[in-house]
């Protein structure tokens, strides 16, 4: 009974626990998005998110900007092809019965305007959908069938055609297909036939004439025609729309801007921020190459003063136009004949202007988006910081861009890649500590910045004078992933970087990493040399073989090093259509001496004699005799072996 009392609780205890009340807390009233907002505030935005679009298979994650472009476009074009198949043959999916039904998997084929009923309602649908070319085709069909089109519909069609130049909307306006929006390039084109027909047909009021002026200016279809229409409106006492003035100011000669501004004042037309942006563009074009920063600052300050007086807030595009006047690309990106007069003064003026703009933006409650060119402010600002070597200012620009208050974002993989690349290159040039540089490099590569050859060269220059295994290993691995080992200049410098490292100073774990990395690099070069495709094939050069063998001896793989050296004497590897080794070339004497010294230390006579024969291509007889005496002494050669080596040296041509 005592034992059962332990296992079975007493009746009184069970009753007490049963009578305990459970209090249910009242429901907390929350909005439909409060939980999502709380999660967003906790997690925060992930600026590397675009890079994760590539992570389907680790083997296919791209490391270069061009590869990212091709990968993203391939994925998107594959989806477009699948949608095209579903649109063309919908009966193939007729027996699918998914619940709930997903319309995204049942795309409807866009009806050809040639098969549409020629009615004004159909025309309105095409105009609302911004199917510019289809709307133009249907309108032509309606004209051919003598279907009457109201003046209102013709006006809407005319405004659509002038805005897009008679072509479909450009790819950067594409909402659904992100890759085409980012990487698509559309040449501006003006299809004048139907536009001019509608212009002659419609009643030419201020709106129609202003739209025509904007179209001519936007697509560079005829500045003289745009100015002629403007003068007609002036003669008829008509007031052009503000957009017409803005287009003319930006497209005409700078000395004509004053007349246009005076006309706006006479018509009591209030300028907007686009007016002043157009004026700044005109001012920038008016500056000659010899124009100094003082003149530029004076003109720009006058415009900014007018904006302040009219209580018009400058946009990021306003600041970008001003900064671009003080920035000139480095010599590699422009004509080297361009004079550099006043470049230092422009640098100082540019960084000063940037500091003032940042002071304003950092105090703003929100950095709002006003136009498609606003994001150029960040790229130009970072270029100026890089040009001036100002890391503190670059950190302020980066902080502003990543701030939650900033609503202006650059297109990923294009402008954003350039922005972060400039920031990284600036840190490479100015970094004092390689530990700090390692943090910056690992943060931005490859998620933000692709592994370009230019970046690898910059990093190699930085690592040339200081040993830093972790950063060197990461750079080499990134170069392998980006397929830069096929570039002879990069491959040679990477081998030199590893040869220059103090192997004895590495920890046991780092030595293991060193060993694996060397074997991987050598395997890559051997694989390149065996490609059947001549375009991809990269033969093993003399320097590649010697330096690779030297690295293999560092990790204790003398057998593979010897096999690699003997390829230089293998006729099947050096001659014929399938040759994988090119014996021509040059290697520094010290590499051969290091390899020879290693063979002597290991008393490896076979390797030493092979290296001695390779030395005979570059060394004098006196140098060879000295090395031969070392070989005989260290390895204890007998008289016959010594006589053979001496005979080889004696018969060698001087």
UniProtKB/TrEMBL annotation:
Top-rank taxon, per record: Eukaryota
Keywords: Mitochondrion, Repeat, Ribonucleoprotein, Ribosomal protein, RNA-binding, rRNA-binding, Transit peptide, Translation regulation
GO terms for MF: ribosomal small subunit binding; rRNA binding
Pfam families registered for this protein in UniProt: PPR_3, Rib_mS39_PPR
Location (main, coarse): mitochondrion
GO BP field: mitochondrial translation; regulation of translation
Protein family per UniProt: Belongs to the mitochondrion-specific ribosomal protein mS39 family.
PANTHER family linked: PENTATRICOPEPTIDE REPEAT DOMAIN-CONTAINING PROTEIN 3, SMALL RIBOSOMAL SUBUNIT PROTEIN MS39
Protein name: Small ribosomal subunit protein mS39
């Amino acid at each position: 009974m005592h034992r059962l009392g332990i296992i079975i609780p007493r009746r009184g205890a069970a009753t007490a626990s049963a009578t305990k009340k459970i209090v249910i807390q009242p429901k907390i009233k929350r909005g439909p998005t409060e939980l999502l907002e709380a999660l967003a505030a906790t997690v925060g935005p992930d600026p590397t998110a675009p890079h994760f679009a590539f992570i389907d298979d680790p083997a296919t994650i791209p490391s270069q900007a061009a590869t990212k472009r091709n990968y993203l476009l391939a994925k998107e074009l594959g989806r477009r092809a699948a949608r095209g198949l579903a649109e063309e043959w919908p009966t193939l999916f007729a027996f699918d019965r998914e619940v709930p039904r997903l319309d995204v998997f049942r795309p409807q084929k866009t009806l050809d305007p040639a098969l549409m009923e020629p009615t004004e309602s159909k025309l309105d649908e095409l105009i609302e959908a911004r199917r510019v070319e289809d709307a133009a085709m249907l309108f032509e069909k309606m004209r051919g069938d003598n279907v009457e089109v109201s003046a209102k519909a013709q006006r809407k069609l005319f405004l659509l055609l002038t805005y897009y130049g008679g072509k479909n909307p450009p790819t950067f306006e594409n909402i659904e297909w992100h890759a085409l929006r980012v990487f698509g390039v559309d040449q501006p084109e003006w299809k004048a036939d139907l536009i001019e027909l509608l212009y002659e047909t419609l009643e030419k009021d201020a709106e129609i004439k202003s739209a025509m002026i904007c179209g001519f200016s936007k697509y560079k279809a005829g500045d003289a025609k745009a100015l002629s229409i403007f003068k007609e409106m002036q003669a008829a006492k008509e007031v052009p729309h503000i957009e017409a003035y803005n287009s003319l100011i930006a497209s005409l000669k700078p000395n004509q801007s004053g007349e246009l501004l005076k006309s706006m004042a006479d018509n009591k037309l209030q300028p907007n921020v686009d007016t002043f942006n157009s004026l700044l563009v005109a001012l920038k074009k008016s500056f000659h190459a010899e124009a100094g920063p003082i003149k530029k600052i004076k003109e720009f300050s006058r415009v900014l003063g007018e904006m302040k007086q009219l209580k018009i807030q400058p946009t990021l595009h306003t600041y970008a136009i001003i900064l671009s006047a003080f920035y000139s690309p480095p010599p590699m990106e422009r004509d080297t004949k361009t004079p550099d007069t006043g470049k230092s003064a422009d640098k100082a003026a540019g960084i000063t202007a940037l500091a003032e703009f940042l002071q304003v933006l950092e105090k703003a409650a929100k950095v709002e988006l006003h136009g498609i060119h606003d994001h150029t402010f960040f790229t130009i600002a970072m270029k100026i910081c890089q040009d001036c070597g100002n890391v503190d200012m670059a950190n302020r620009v980066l902080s502003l861009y990543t701030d939650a208050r900033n609503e202006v974002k650059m297109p990923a993989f294009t402008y954003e890649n350039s922005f972060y690349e400039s920031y990284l290159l600036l840190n490479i040039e100015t970094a004092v500590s390689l530990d700090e540089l390692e943090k910056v490099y690992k943060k931005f590569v490859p998620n933000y910045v692709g592994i370009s050859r230019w970046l690898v060269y910059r990093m190699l220059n930085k690592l040339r004078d200081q040993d830093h295994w972790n950063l060197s290993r990461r750079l080499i691995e990134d170069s392998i992933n980006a397929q830069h080992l096929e570039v002879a200049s990069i491959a040679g410098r990477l081998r030199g970087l590893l040869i220059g490292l103090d192997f004895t100073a590495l920890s046991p774990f780092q030595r293991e990493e060193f060993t694996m990395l060397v074997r991987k690099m050598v395997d890559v070069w051997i694989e390149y040399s065996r490609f059947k495709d001549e375009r991809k094939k990269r033969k093993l050069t003399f320097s590649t073989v010697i330096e690779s063998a030297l690295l293999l001896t560092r990790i204790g793989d003398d057998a593979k090093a010897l096999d690699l050296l003997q390829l230089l004497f293998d006729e099947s590897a050096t001659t014929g259509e399938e040759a994988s080794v090119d014996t021509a070339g040059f290697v520094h004497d010290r590499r051969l001496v290091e390899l020879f010294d290693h063979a002597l230390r290991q008393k490896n006579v076979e390797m030493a004699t092979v290296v001695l024969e390779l030395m005979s291509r570059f060394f004098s007889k006196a140098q060879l005799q000295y090395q031969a005496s070392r070989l005989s002494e260290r390895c204890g050669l007998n008289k016959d072996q010594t006589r053979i080596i001496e005979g080889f040296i004696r018969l060698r041509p001087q």
